[in-house]
C-alpha cells in the first residue's frame, strides 16, 4: 500500500489524533519508559518532542508499532546520564527480559523499590526525558515523507510499510515519528506480513538469525572433523522470552531439514516459561530445561546435562550475567564454543577468556546481523517458513500496565506498543 503525497497519506487516517495538519513537521508525542522503581512512583512519561526535518536523501517514518528490544542492562546514575548524548544513552538501555527477571527476584527478596535497587534515575530528576527502559530499536511503520533529493525511482513511496534496521545512532522508537538518514536502513514489509510482527524482526529475530548462522559454520566444521559421521552435534540455546523463541524457531527451520534433521540435537534452557511451554508442543524433537534460580548451581548444571544427554558442543547464550556464562561453560565440551552477543562480550570476555582458554573452550561474539540478513528474515516470516513467536499488542497509552505485566511474567512471548491504528 502506498500514497502519492502527504496530503493523501493524511486524509486516509495516517495521522496522530493529537496533531493538527501542518504540525507534523515540528512536534510529536514520545513515550519514555524507565526501570520500574516504587520510590519514584510512575515509570512511564509522555512528552512532546521536536521532529527533525526530513533528510534530503532519507525519510521520516510514522511509527505504528514498537517492540521491546534486546540491549544490555547497566545501572546509570543521574550524573552519568547528564554526560551522555542520545546515541550513547540508547546503548545503555536494558534488556527487558533480563530486567523483568531481576525485578521479580527483587520483589521476592523484599528489595524492590529500595534506594539501591536497579535504577535510581528519573527524567524529572536527571533532566533527560528519554531515559527509556526499552528505547524502541524494533519498530515498524509507514513512510511519512521522503527526502527532497530522492527520485521516483528510489524504490520507496510515501505511505509504504517498512521496518527499520538498527543502525548505529538509530533514534528511539517510542516516538510517533523519527528521522532516518539513509533509505538503505528501511526494509519493505510485504502486504501479507502484519506490521506488529514486523516490529519484532529488527533486533530479536535478526540477532537470533545471526547466531544460528554463526552456529551453522561451527557445526559444519565439527562434522568435517568428526570420525563418526552419524554423531549429532549438540546445541544448547540459553535465553528468555521472545529472543529464545525466535532462536528456537530459526534453529528448527535451519537445521531440521530433510538432510540435516539427525545431525543436530537442540536443547533450550530458559529462566522463565514466557511461551516456551507452548513451544514444546510445536517442536517434539527439541529438549527443554528450566533454569530455576531457586536451585543450587550444581543442580542446574546436572539438570541441563541430563536434558542434553551429556556435555554440549555449542552454546548460544543470550544471558547478560556472569552466572549465565559460567553455567554455559560448565555444560560445554572441551574445545566447545559459546556464542554471546557483541555487547555482552564487551562486558564479560575480560573476566572469562582465561578460564575458557584453560579448558580449550572458545567464547565468540556474535554481531547483531546485517541488513541483508534482515531482508532474509522478513522474507522467511512473510512466506510462513518461520512462524513468529506469540506476541500481544497494547496501546501506547497502556505502557505502564505493560511494564507491570512484564515484571510479573504475565505476557507470553513479546509485548508490542501500538501508536497508530492504520490497519
From TrEMBL:
Pfam families attached to this UniProt entry: ADH_zinc_N_2
Gene Ontology molecular function, alphabetical: metal ion binding; oxidoreductase activity, acting on the CH-OH group of donors, NAD or NADP as acceptor
InterPro entries: CAD-like (IPR047109), ER (IPR020843), GroES-like_sf (IPR011032), NAD(P)-bd_dom_sf (IPR036291)
Signal peptide residues on this chain, from the entry's feature table: none
Domain of life from the UniProt record: Eukaryota
Protein name per Swiss-Prot or TrEMBL: Enoyl reductase (ER) domain-containing protein
Keyword line: Metal-binding, Oxidoreductase, Zinc
Enoyl reductase (ER) domain ranges (all copies): 41-417
UniProt keyword Zinc present: yes
Gene3D superfamilies: Medium-chain alcohol dehydrogenases, catalytic domain, NAD(P)-binding Rossmann-like Domain
Amino acid at each position: 500500500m502506498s500514497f502519492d503525497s502527504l496530503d493523501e497519506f493524511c486524509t486516509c487516517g495516517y495521522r496522530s489524533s493529537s496533531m493538527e495538519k501542518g504540525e507534523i513537521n515540528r512536534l510529536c508525542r514520545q513515550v519514555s519508559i524507565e526501570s520500574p522503581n516504587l520510590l519514584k512512583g510512575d515509570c512511564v512519561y509522555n512528552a512532546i518532542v521536536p521532529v527533525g526535518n526530513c533528510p534530503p536523501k532519507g525519510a521520516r517514518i510514522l511509527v505504528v508499532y514498537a517492540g521491546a528490544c534486546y540491549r544490555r542492562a547497566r545501572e546509570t546514575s543521574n550524573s552519568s546520564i547528564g554526560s551522555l548524548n542520545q546515541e550513547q544513552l540508547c546503548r545503555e538501555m536494558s534488556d527487558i527480559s533480563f530486567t523483568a527477571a531481576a525485578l521479580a527476584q527483587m520483589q521476592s527478596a523484599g528489595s524492590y523499590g529500595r534506594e539501591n535497587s536497579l535504577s535510581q534515575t528519573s527524567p524529572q530528576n536527571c533532566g533527560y526525558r528519554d531515559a527509556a527502559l526499552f528505547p524502541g530499536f524494533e519498530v515498524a511503520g509507514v513512510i511519512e515523507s521522503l527526502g527532497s533529493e530522492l527520485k521516483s525511482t528510489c524504490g520507496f513511496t510515501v505511505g509504504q510499510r517498512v521496518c527499520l534496521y538498527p543502525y548505529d545512532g538509530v533514534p528511539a522508537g517510542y516516538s510517533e515519528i523519527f528521522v532516518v538518514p539513509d533509505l538503505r536502513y528501511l526494509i519493505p514489509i510485504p502486504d501479507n506480513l502484519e506490521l506488529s510482527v514486523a516490529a519484532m524482526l529488527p533486533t530479536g529475530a535478526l540477532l537470533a538469525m545471526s547466531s544460528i548462522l554463526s552456529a551453522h559454520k561451527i557445526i559444519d566444521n565439527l562434522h568435517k572433523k568428526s570420525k563418526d559421521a552419524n554423531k549429532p552435534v549438540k546445541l544448547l540455546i540459553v535465553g528468555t522470552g521472545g529472543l529464545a523463541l525466535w532462536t528456537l524457531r530459526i534453529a528448527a527451520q535451519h537445521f531440521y531439514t530433510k538432510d540435516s534433521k539427525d545431525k543436530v540435537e537442540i536443547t533450550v534452557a530458559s529462566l522463565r516459561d514466557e511461551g516456551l511451554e507452548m513451544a514444546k508442543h510445536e517442536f517434539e524433537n527439541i529438549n527443554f530445561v528450566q533454569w530455576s534460580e531457586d536451585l543450587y548451581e550444581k543442580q542446574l548444571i546436572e539438570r541441563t546435562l541430563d536434558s542434553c544427554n551429556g556435555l554440549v558442543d555449542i552454546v548460544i547464550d543470550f544471558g547478560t550475567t556472569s552466572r549465565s556464562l559460567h553455567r554455559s561453560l560448565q555444560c560445554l565440551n572441551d574445545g566447545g564454543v559459546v556464542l554471546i552477543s557483541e555487547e555482552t562480550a564487551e562486558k564479560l570476555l575480560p573476566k572469562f577468556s582465561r578460564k575458557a582458554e584453560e579448558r580449550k573452550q572458545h567464547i565468540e561474539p556474535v554481531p547483531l546481523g546485517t541488513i541483508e540478513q534482515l531482508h532474509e528474515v522478513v522474507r522467511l516470516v512473510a512466506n510462513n517458513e518461520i512462524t513468529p513467536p506469540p506476541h500481544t499488542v497494547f496501546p501506547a497509552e497502556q505502557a505502564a500496565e505493560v511494564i507491570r505485566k512484564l515484571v510479573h511474567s504475565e505476557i507470553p512471548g513479546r509485548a508490542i506498543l501500538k501508536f497508530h491504528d492504520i490497519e
